[in-house]
Each structure stands twice: as C-alpha cells, then as structure tokens.
Amino acid sequence: MSRITLSRFLIEQQRKAGSLPPELRLLIETVGRACKAISFSVNKGALAGVLGDAGSGNVQGEAQKKLDVIANDFLLDANEWGGSLAAMASEEMELPYHIPGEYPKGDYLLLFDPLDGSSNIDVNISVGTIFSILRCPSGVTQPDESAFLQPGTQQVAAGYTVYGPQTMLVLTFGSGVHGFTLDREHGSFVLTHPDMRVPERTNEFAINMSNMRHWDAPVQRYVNELLAGETGPRGRDFNMRWVASMVAEVHRIITRGGVFMYPHDARTPQQPGKLRLMYEGNPMAFIIEQAGGVASNGQQRIMEIVPQKLHERVAVFLGSKEEVERVTSYHQA
Ligand code: P6P
Predict the structure, then answer these.
(1) What is the percent of the chain where pLDDT is above 90?
(2) Do residues 218 and 333 make contact, with C-beta atoms less than 8 angstroms apart?
(3) CATH number of the domain encompassing residue 276
(4) 222-239 average pLDDT score
(5) Residue 173: strand, helix, or coil
(6) Please, is 132 exposed, middle or buried when counting C-beta atoms within 10 Å of its C-beta (0-12, 13-18, 19+)?
(7) Which numbered atom of ligand 1 lies nearest the CA of 113?
(8) Number of structural domains, the chain?
(9) Burial bucket for residue 139 (CB in 10 Å: 0-12, 13-18, 19+)
(10) Whole-number mean pLDDT of the chain?
(11) Which residue, 50, 183, 270, 273, is most buried by CB atoms nearer than 10 A?
C-alpha cells in the first residue's frame, strides 16, 4: 500500500469539497513541520544540552524548561511568516503574539501548549505539543486577547504531537481523527492510524490519586467505586495509569480507551482545575469528541464553555463515553 504522507492526506482532503480550505491546510502542514523540529530537539536531550530549567518562569508562574522555550520559539518562527495567521497565543506567553509587520496576515488564530508535560523531560518520559486553530473574528486586524475568547465549538482544527517511542501527530479538522507517525529517515509524517475511535467502554482510569482528599464529593464517589472493583457497585475491577503528561494520557485513551480526570482541587478554590481551557482542554475535547468520546468539566461540554481569559483553567473529565457520562452525572446528583 503506498504511503500517504501528511501533505498528501491534507491535499486530498482539500480536494473534497469544502472540507479543508487551502489556507488551513497550509497552516496545519506548517505546525507539523514545527513539531518535527521539536521532536528532533527533544530526542537529542542531553546530547544537545537542552535538558533542565531555562532559568525563567511563564505566565502560569511555573519554572520553564529549556525545551519549553525552544519548542515555543520553533512554533513562532515556523508560523509567523506563512500568511495564514492573524496572531498566536501560547501557554508560555502572557499576551498574544502579533504577526510582525513585514509578513502578511491571514484569517486564523493559532493557540498552543508548545511542550505539555515538560516536567517529564528530564526523566525521559513522553511529552507533547497541543495546538488549536480558531478563525480570527472578521474585521479584526490587530487581534488582542478578546479575539481568542471563543468557545471550543469554534475550533476549525486541533491536534497534538506526542514525543514518545514514536513521534505521532494526531489531528482533527472536523472530519474524524487521524494519526500520523514520523518517519525519521524521510522526515515525513505518514498516515498510520486513520479514523481513530475512543472505545465507549473502558476498565482504565487516569487521575493523580495523591490529590484525592482535595476533590469534590462526586469525584471521590466515582473513584471510590472504581477502587471497589468487582466487590463494589461497578461489579468489575479497574486499572489505573498516571503519566503526568496529558498528551500521553489522551493518546493512550484514544488508542485503547480510558477516562482522564483533572478535577477541581479544594486547595485552589478559585480555580476550576489545573489544566488550561484554550490550549489544553478545548483541543483535546475536540479530538476526543471527533473520535466518539466525551469531554466535560463535570457540568457541561468543555467545548461549550465561553472563555473569559486567555489562560483560564478548566476541570477536565474526558475519554470513553460511558465513564465520562457517569462521572459527570454524579456532579448533577
Ligand atoms: P500533576 C503537565 O504539567 C500537566 O499540565 C498535564 O500534562 C498533566 O496531565 C498534569 O499537568 C499533571 O499534573 O499534578 O499530576 O503533576
């Protein structure tokens, strides 16, 4: 069977009437090229002196890893000149990044977490890049934060690249979810997982159990039932995984099922959760829903939340339909 590269796949999708505008296709390919550069850097690790802290902090008040900054720069450098974008926003930058005057602007807004799970970098555990694409509101020529504050249902594309044993780009633009594996010899992403689907049923859950005493009652009830296994109300045993890298968890879940949870924590009562809505919650929710899964904040679809701030946080319950619907229903009880 001939290999279908990311470029060929996107061009063929573009040919299908209206499923992928040329500008959006170009933008997705450019993000893919930046992720290749990030993959090569991540894979070099200590050999390239890119491990460890950058000595700076980000808007979240978190210490930045060298590779956080490198990945952010790769994405900015690759995308600023192409003419597809009106602006970019990143977990690593407090304010939106405006396209420099010497370059043409386009109709899209690109948001990303350049290297999610970067605390795992120095211990050689999978990390990833998450991205989300919105249309720039018509008539807005200098997009500020307000131009980005669109619900996740407005996304035109979303994806992640997981830097693991394989580097894989997983992508949706509203016509299902498709996975591409990086062929390092040829330097191209090759379609290996067309039409990915999240199994509706699962026996596997992912949550940081050390926070259990700080969760709200519905989450404690749900997880206690999982722990009770076949002797409890669920009547079957469950397995647990926690990589502390959302991209790795989501990839596992979209591949074999599961439920990922990062709930509200009583220690930060003002914050709905730890994860960020615009460039973690929304893109992952789009991907999961397009693959037949469910993504909620415990009260509503993540993608229906109307954002108030660029870096606002969200509680996340996503993955296999049966489990996410159950834990969400406990919040309504
Ligand atoms: P904890 C990584 O820092 C991240 O944002 C997600 O990728 C991951 O799922 C979560 O935080 C891990 O959080 O509290 O277990 O370290």
Answers:
(1) 92
(2) yes
(3) 3.40.190.80
(4) 98
(5) coil
(6) buried
(7) 5
(8) 2
(9) exposed
(10) 96
(11) 273
- pLDDT value at position 49? 87
Question: Do residue 177 and residue 92 come from a single domain?
Answer: yes
pLDDT digits (tens, 9 = 90+) for 159-182: 999 999 999 999 999 999 999 999
Cα-based distances in Å from 22 to 33, 125, 173, 269, 333: 17, 36, 13, 44, 47
| Residue position matching structure tokens 């647990």 | 240
Q: Are residues 290 and 148 in the same domain?
A: no
User: By alpha-carbon position, which residue is closest to atom 12 of ligand 1?
Assistant: 244
* Mutate which of 275, 279, 317 for ligand 1 pocket (most atoms within 8 A of beta carbon): 275
Q: Do 60 and 161 share a domain, yes or no?
A: yes
Asked whether residue 18 carries a pLDDT value surpassing 80, the answer given is no
> Residue of the nearest CA to atom 9 in ligand 1?
246
Confidence band (pLDDT; 50, 70, 90) for 61?
A: confident
Q: Assign 206 to helix, strand or coil.
A: strand
Pocket of ligand 1 (CB under 6 A): 116-117, 119, 208, 244-246, 274-275
- Say yes or no: 65 and 156 in one domain: yes
State yes or no: pLDDT of 2 exceeds 90.
Answer: no
Residue 17, pLDDT > 80, answer no
180-211 pLDDT per residue, tens? 999 999 999 999 999 999 999 999 999 999 99
| Cβ pair 290, 177 in contact under 8 A | yes
Contacts of 225 (CB under 8 A, 6+ apart): 232, 233, 234
The whole domain housing 183 covers 6-193
Q: How far apart are CA 203 and CA 312, in angstroms?
A: 31
User: Does 25 map to a domain?
Assistant: yes
Residues 210, 128 within the same domain: no
Question: 130 in a domain, yes or no?
Answer: yes
Instruction: Indicate the residue among 193, 228, 248 that finishes a domain.
Output: 193
